[in-house]
Every structure is written in C-alpha cells, then in structure tokens.
Specification:
Layout: H1 2-32, H2 41-53, E1 66-71, E2 78-84, E3 90-98, E4 104-111, H3 119-128, E5 141-148, E6 151-157, E7 162-166, H4 178-185, E8 202-207, H5 233-241, E9 247-250, E10 252-255, E11 259-269, E12 274-279, E13 283-287, H6 288-293, E14 298-300
Antiparallel strand pairs: 1-2, 2-3, 3-4, 4-13, 5-6, 6-7, 8-11, 9-11, 9-14, 11-12, 12-13
Keywords: Signal
Signal peptide: 1-32
Length: 301
C-alpha cells in the first residue's frame, strides 16, 4: 500500500518533467525551422524580376531566358539568379531578396555572358594562373562569399593553398583566409532598400554603346588630386547623357585593392532609385546608394 502511494505521488512529478521535456523539444524544433515555409519564394522573386527587366532596352534577350537560382553564399539573405538563354549561355544575372513580408527586392544585376559568380570565368582564370592543369580540371573547391556588390568573392580551396578571386572578374584578391576577408571587407551583409521591390517600375534607362565607352585609366584623376564628382542623381544622369567621362573608384578591401570602373549608363526607377551601370565584364547595375556607402567610393571626371 505504501509503495502504491509512493508511485501515485510520483506520477505528477513525472508528468511535469515529461511536459517540460516536450516543451523544450518543441521550442528547439521551432527555432531550427525557417521563418517562412514558402521555399519557392526565391524562384518567384527571380521570375518576377527577370520578367520586369526583360521589357527594358538592353534586356530584351531575357524574354527567351529563364533564371537559374543558387544560394548567394553563407551568411546572406539573398539568391543569385543567373539568366540562361535557350542554348544554355548566360545572358545576365540578378541578385534577389525575399523579404519577411513576402515582397521581392532587387539588389544588383547585370548584362552579358560573364555574370556574377560565373564558373566558366573562374575556371579559365585558374587555368591561366596555373592553379589547375586545365579549365576542365576539378582539382579545386569553390565557395561563394557576398557582403555587398564590390565585396563579392570566390574562396578557392586548392590542394596546397587557398586563394580568393573577385566574383565578377575572377581577378586574384589580396586575401588569404576568411578572417582576413571579413576584416578587410568590414561591412554588414547588404540588403537593398524597399525601393528595389518588384512593385517598383523602371522609369528610364540609358546605356553607352561600345564605341562611346572609355578606359578608366586614361586619366588617374584619383591620384592627381582632382576633386571628386558629387553624384547627385540629376548631375550624374546629365553627364551620362552627354557621354562625358565618369569613373567610379572604391577600396572595398581597404588599401589592399582599388577598383576603377567606367560609368557606362544608368537605370532610374519610379520610386526614385537610381542604378549606375559600371563596365566590369559586361554592364553591372548597382544602386547609387550602395556605391556611395562602399569604403572610399567616389566618382571622378
């Protein structure tokens, strides 16, 4: 009888412990689950953005293409949509973000057969630098890293070393490890403003022809003490329309590396957002607001 009473008395405690355990387990499962159950959000965002841009001059080839979705890299909240034509050749790319409210946001985007994080461009660069015996070799492992448009890189792990290359040009970067990369880039993961939402509509686009473009190193304005060009939207647009020289210079990795890129166009949106087209293995459209926030990001005439 005494044993039965002890057993009965212990049941509430056992049930309490069991309920506590189940509660902790449920909380752990909830924390591990993604915020959104819509796993098709990146594909929907990419399809909507590609469809919208395909109606713009210069982007009409995108009407025959389809977006190929890839994760942008560890620690980011975006996806890379490479627009592939009917014959499998890249036509361009777009970086897309799915916001928590379900809306789609557009980051940077570009035109040309050498998109962001293009494996063919990477393989050719590795072979040219004798890091691999041939472009077809698989003697390496590549990982994408993306903080903002000019802090985007391949981390390439080889048999005896690890090297870092620019995600657009595949140019070798002065970085040797991830700690150094994060320290050099010194920035938070990039997320475009609401102005990049799909609900926004393009207002005007202008692109220089190949005959109208120029070499950004013809005049080293940033070394000659020239005063930087103040990039107010109207002034920048007027300069592009007049086909006058304009160069964007930045040091996203500190003084370890300098980018000097020709401004070859722009796209303006009804919301007021202005995307500047830079000549970098094709036309690369980056929001003006992002360019001015990058370390030592300045324009020169």
């Amino acid at each position: 009888m005494r044993n039965a009473n002890r057993s009965a008395a212990g049941r509430p405690l056992f049930l309490l412990l069991l309920l506590s355990f189940l509660s902790v387990l449920a909380s752990a499962r909830s924390a591990a689950a993604p915020v959104s159950a819509d796993t098709n959000a990146p594909a929907r965002c990419a399809a909507a953005i590609v469809s919208q841009l395909s109606g713009q001059p210069g982007f009409t080839a995108w009407k025959t293409g389809s977006p190929r979705i890839e994760a942008l890299g560890p620690g980011t909240h975006g996806w890379l949509a490479t627009v592939v034509g009917p014959k499998g050749m890249p036509l361009g790319y777009a970086v897309v973000y799915a916001a928590e409210d379900g809306s789609c946001r557009l980051g940077e985007y570009g035109l040309g057969p050498k998109p962001l994080f293009d494996t063919t461009t990477l393989r050719l660069a590795l072979a040219a630098g004798s890091y691999i015996p041939a472009a077809s070799s698989n003697a390496f492992r590549a990982v994408k890293h993306y903080i903002h448009p000019l802090a985007a890189a391949w981390e390439v792990r080889l048999e005896k070393e690890t090297i870092w290359l620019d995600a657009k040009s595949a140019e070798l970067l002065p970085i040797s490890n991830e700690v150094q990369w994060l320290s050099a880039a010194a920035n938070e993961p990039y997320l475009p403003a609401d102005a990049g939402a799909v609900a926004d509509k393009p207002r005007e686009i202008r692109l220089l022809t190949s005959a109208e473009t120029f070499d950004p190193y013809e005049r080293l304005s940033w070394l000659l003490g020239d005063k930087p060009f103040a990039p107010q939207q109207d002034r920048l647009i007027a300069r592009v329309k007049a086909k006058d020289r304009l160069v964007y210079v930045a040091e996203p990795l500190g003084d370890k590396m300098l980018y000097a890129l020709s401004v070859v166009g722009y796209q303006r949106w009804q919301s007021g957002r202005l995307d500047v087209a830079l000549d970098m293995n094709g036309q690369r459209f980056i929001p003006l607001d992002s360019l001015t926030k990058i370390n030592k990001g300045l324009f020169y005439r």
